[in-house]
Write a sequence for this structure.
């Protein structure tokens, strides 16, 4: 799935006036590519992702473009890890039976090495595990595009490495389109050869 | 470390003991030696609202008691029923209270150290209903609800006595009573609700009758004789320790009663604004058939006998023992002097 | 370490209960306090047993518990409906606010004579009183819960293409469960109080009335041990519901989910 944005401007009203968060931004990401977008925190990267994902007010997000948020608490705390996934599967795959959904959920968890934690509630999992769980959810619903908003920023180095390996492996195997936003240049380089600087996107160059 | 452990244990023990002592003392103090009006020369009188208590209103308006006892502070306290008056007297906050005869007997039966001092008024008390097909207690069905002041009030007791007379069971209607004040009961009766009967007194009684309600039975029918409706009771301690004040109260009461009986029109004029009723209406109510202002104590032993019979009183009560000596003479039923 | 502390706490509580009971018994027997003010523990206990075995008390306890259960269930149901509808329709949200504003500060007992005149003295009126006492705190808390639902869950819901109803039920309601429970606790306390007070007036509703009527009759007939017995029953029931019912529900839900 290709992602194309052309000359998008997004303004927020602030006490001191209007702030142009996205200023005539253009972006094109061909299908199957892994693109890192780098920029300092707070510059509008999240806004960009939300725009792409369709979270902007009246738009309707689709399960094919799945957002992985920065907050490690994005699994529903009132469901077990497995239940979170099977619920997501049943809601996006209408008509699928409960058993089949559980099967798929287990398969997705196996991909992120969390199968043993199927019956665990999210609050018993570490931050890294929860983010992997969120990733598994995206896999479970068979999204084509992942929008990742600094998902590993709160992990320690060791867990980050594990997460990077996992993400890259999944990207290759599933041929996903991934837009990965971060403020950490090392992380950006580690993950992708295609690094976009947010300031460059904003205002001028179609890439 | 051991030193700290020991110190902590001692501290803990000390704190426990101290707290226990404080609690005990607080508790003790709050229960014993309550409001003692001895030193401050105050009298606390409990009254209720209604024209049956009119002599008390006259006493207040004309300051009869204040004039008879200069230097003594008279506190008038108004209560919504006999039960809180009884509790107030138990707590020592009230010296002299006015209520129907039945709650007074229940108090005595349970150890209240008070006695009857006087009567104030006779009133017609009647069970009225909004269902025309009811002629006697037998005609009530399970779904009829009967409004009374509260369980243990004189009306409730009369209902139990009557029920015993008719059914042999004093508790026949116990699951059908509703506790409501007279004005609320009257409203509920008139509004055609589940409440189909009310043991009522004037001025509510006459209003209900004017609305077409029907009398099923009256207190006098049940008792077989007229009886004092509102009595005055005094704590024995008050009687013994403050004879001057006790006598003054009775004297002032008699004066007020005489005043009403001899100067009805003036009394009505004084009372009408207090009761917020038109003078003519009030006069009708106060001269209503069966409303008599008098200090006579009548029917106490008959009532005690009936209450014992239906099991409300655990002990037999002798009229002689529960009325202060000077007040006994006014009871026509007394044979045991 | 945590378990040790919990045990210590239990012993301390037990200790104080025994101290208070001892003070009570001492005051009633050798302390010279009149039996009319403070009956001995023995008298109260024997009256309680007598009322349970030979009196109407078991039925009355059952009745009071039954009506409060029904009333609170209705209140929870109504509150959820109102709160969900308020999320969708601004008109209902406004109505809900106005009604809460009027209803919440109004004690049910103040309305008692009116309720009797309008609705009579049957089960319906008693349940109406309970619902009135319970609905507003639950509704207010639930609305607060809805306001506080983390946006991220809502976004995930949209990402999963959930319908507005699914978002309301799966996300908003479940995320607000701690608030709902807190509201129900408050509601129970308020409606229990209103119930006991109303029962004192209503008389023998149901068949033989409730605990409030039991207590009232003890009082008017000057049966002080019976009065104490009734009060103890009320206290014990309150404790039981707090400890066993609410704590149990919390353990199975918000605690399990890490939401406290």
């Amino acid at each position: 799935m290709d992602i194309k944005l052309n000359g998008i401007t997004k303004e927020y009203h602030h006490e001191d006036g209007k702030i142009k968060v996205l200023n005539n931004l253009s972006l094109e990401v061909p299908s199957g590519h892994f693109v890192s977008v780098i920029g300092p925190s707070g510059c509008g990267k999240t806004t960009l992702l939300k725009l792409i994902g369709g979270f902007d007010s009246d738009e309707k997000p689709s399960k094919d473009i799945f957002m992985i948020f920065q907050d490690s608490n994005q699994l529903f705390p009132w469901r077990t890890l497995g239940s979170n996934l099977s619920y997501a599967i049943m809601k996006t795959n209408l008509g699928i039976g409960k058993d089949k959904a559980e099967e798929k959920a287990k398969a997705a968890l196996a991909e992120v090495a969390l199968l043993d934690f199927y019956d665990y509630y999210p609050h018993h999992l570490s931050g890294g595990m929860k983010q992997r769980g969120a990733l598994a959810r995206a896999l479970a619903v068979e999204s084509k595009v992942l929008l990742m908003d600094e998902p590993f920023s709160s992990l320690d180095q060791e867990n980050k490495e594990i997460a990077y390996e996992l993400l890259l492996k999944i990207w290759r195997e599933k041929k996903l389109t991934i837009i990965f936003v971060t403020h950490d240049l090392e992380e950006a380089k580690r993950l992708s050869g295609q690094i976009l600087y947010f300031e460059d996107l904003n205002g001028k160059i179609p890439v | 470390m051991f030193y700290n452990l020991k110190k902590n244990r001692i501290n803990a023990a000390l704190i426990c003991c101290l707290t226990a002592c404080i609690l005990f003392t607080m508790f003790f103090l709050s229960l014993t030696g309550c409001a003692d009006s001895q030193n401050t020369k105050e009298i606390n009188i409990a009254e209720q609202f209604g024209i049956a208590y009119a002599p008390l209103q006259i006493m207040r308006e004309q300051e009869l008691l204040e004039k008879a006892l200069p230097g003594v502070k008279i506190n008038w306290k108004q209560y919504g029923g006999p039960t809180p008056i009884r509790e107030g007297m138990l707590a020592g906050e009230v010296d002299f209270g006015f209520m129907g005869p039945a709650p007074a007997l229940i108090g005595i039966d349970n150890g209240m150290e008070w006695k009857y001092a006087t009567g104030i008024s006779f009133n017609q008390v009647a069970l009225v209903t909004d269902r025309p097909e009811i002629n006697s207690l037998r005609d009530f069905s399970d779904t009829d609800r009967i409004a009374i002041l509260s369980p243990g009030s004189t009306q409730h007791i009369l209902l139990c006595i009557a029920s015993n007379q008719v059914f042999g069971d004093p508790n026949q209607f116990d699951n059908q009573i509703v506790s409501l004040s007279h004005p609320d009961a009257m409203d509920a009766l008139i509004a055609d609700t589940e409440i189909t009967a009310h043991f009522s007194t004037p001025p509510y009684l006459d209003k209900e009758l004017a609305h077409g309600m029907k009398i099923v039975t009256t207190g006098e029918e049940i008792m077989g004789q007229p009886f004092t409706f509102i009595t005055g009771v005094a704590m024995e301690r008050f009687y013994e320790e403050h004879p001057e004040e006790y006598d003054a109260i009775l004297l002032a009461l008699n004066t007020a009663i005489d005043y009403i009986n001899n100067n009805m029109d003036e009394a009505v004029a004084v009372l009408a604004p207090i009761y917020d009723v038109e003078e003519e209406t009030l006069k009708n109510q106060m001269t209503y058939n069966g409303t008599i202002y008098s200090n006579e104590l009548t029917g106490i032993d008959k009532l005690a006998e009936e209450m014992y019979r239906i099991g409300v009183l655990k002990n037999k009560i002798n009229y002689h023992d529960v009325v202060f000596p000077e007040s006994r003479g006014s009871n026509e039923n007394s044979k045991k002097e | 370490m945590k378990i040790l502390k919990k045990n210590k706490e239990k012993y301390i509580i037990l200790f104080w209960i025994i101290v208070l009971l001892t003070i009570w018994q001492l005051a009633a027997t050798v302390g010279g306090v009149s039996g009319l003010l403070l009956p001995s523990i023995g008298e109260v206990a024997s009256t309680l047993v007598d009322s349970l075995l030979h009196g109407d008390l078991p039925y009355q306890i059952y009745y009071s518990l039954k009506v409060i259960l029904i009333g609170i269930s209705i209140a929870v149901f109504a509150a959820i409906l109102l709160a969900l509808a308020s999320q969708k329709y601004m008109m209902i949200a406004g109505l809900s606010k106005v009604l809460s504003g009027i209803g919440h500060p109004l004690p049910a007992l103040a309305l008692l004579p009116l309720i009797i005149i309008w609705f009579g003295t049957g089960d319906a009126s008693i349940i109406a009183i309970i619902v009135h006492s319970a609905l507003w705190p639950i509704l207010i808390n639930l609305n607060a819960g809805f306001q506080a639902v983390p946006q991220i869950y809502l976004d995930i819901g949209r990402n999963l293409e959930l319908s507005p109803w699914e978002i309301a039920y799966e996300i908003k309601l479940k995320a607000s469960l701690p608030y709902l429970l807190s509201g129900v606790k408050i509601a129970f306390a308020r409606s229990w109080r209103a119930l006991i007070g109303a029962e004192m007036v209503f008389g023998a509703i149901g068949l033989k009335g409730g605990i409030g009527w039991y207590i009232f009759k003890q009082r008017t007939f000057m049966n002080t041990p019976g009065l104490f017995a009734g009060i103890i029953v009320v206290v014990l029931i309150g404790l039981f519901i707090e400890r066993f019912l609410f704590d149990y529900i919390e353990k199975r839900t918000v605690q399990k989910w890490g939401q406290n």
